[in-house]
Amino acid sequence: MNKKSIIEKIKHKRSFLCIGLDTDINKIPKYLLNFEDPIFEFNKKIIDATHHLCVAYKPNIAFYESLGVKGMISLEKTLNYIPKDIFTIADAKRGDISNTSKMYAKAFFENMNFDAITVAPYMGSDSVSPFLSYDNKWVILLALTSNNGSIDFQQIEDSCGEKLYEKVLKISNEWGTTNNMMYVVGATRVEDLSKIRSIIPNHFLLIPGVGAQGGSLDQVAKHTINDECGILVNSSRGILYSSQSADFAEKAGEEAKKIQVKMDVILKEKGI
H helices then E strands: how many in the chain? Predict the structure, then answer.
């Protein structure tokens, strides 16, 4: 999916919501365990209840890999069930030597046909470039994450006061374009959002941390939204696990609708 299509979907749905399908078999309603494929049954109902309210789905690959072959089958079925006009992100955080990254790219872009994959930049350009060789596919590079441990490396300053994540943004900006590279920026790092947007004014940002992790949608939009919108805000647990009963899909839809309504207001305020 290209950038123009993503922007058109945002304007049409009045939403920049990405729903993280971090489906934990220990957290889904117990009655679903009676199904042959509980994970897919859960995902299918979530998708049915929310697909008109979001522009992207982001399965966290670890939750599927942890279940072995069955989990990967659930992932494949989920991916095939997602409507084709919705942006799909493999939250895999891959990144290895070039020859290995080529195989990761083949797995997620050819065999599974995801639109995008999250990638760790630590090993440099040759670990990222294989993912950038595909047309209409996206690398979403980790820049500044919302977890507590992000201070261990990402926030380290050099002698000039420049933080490591700033260097990542400036250097990696030359690897791809605004049409094939996005960045992961945590919603809980509000104090850094304006700086990030000044470094990469035109790239899309994938922003986790809104909702269960405490990030503010209004603050995120204030510091990051641009003339094209330019952001995808992810919510996972706050939508997925809003109920442990048979009405979980209905409740998930209600939570997604609340977010979408707020996003519509934000888009109108920005003239989008």
Answer: 11, 8
- 3-269 architecture in CATH? Alpha-Beta Barrel (3.20)
Alpha helix ranges (H) inside the chain: 3-13, 38-50, 61-65, 68-81, 98-105, 125-128, 164-172, 190-199, 217-224, 237-240, 248-269
Distance between CA atoms of residues 178 and 18, nearest Å: 19
pLDDT tens-digit profile, the chain (272 residues): 999 999 999 999 999 999 999 999 999 999 999 999 999 999 999 999 999 999 999 999 999 999 999 999 999 999 999 999 999 999 999 999 999 999 999 999 999 999 999 999 999 999 999 999 999 999 999 999 988 898 999 999 999 999 999 999 999 999 999 999 999 998 877 789 999 999 999 999 999 977 655 678 999 999 999 999 999 999 999 999 999 999 999 999 999 999 999 999 999 999 99
Spatial contact of 177 and 146, defined as CB atoms under 8 Å apart: no
Q: Which of 70, 93, 222, 251 is catalytic?
A: 93
pTM: 0.96
Does 93 qualify as catalytic in the annotation?
Answer: yes
Residue 128 to residue 2: CA distance in whole angstroms? 19
Structure tokens at 71: 């989990």
Residue 229 backbone zone (phi > 0: left; psi -120 to 50: alpha; other: beta): left
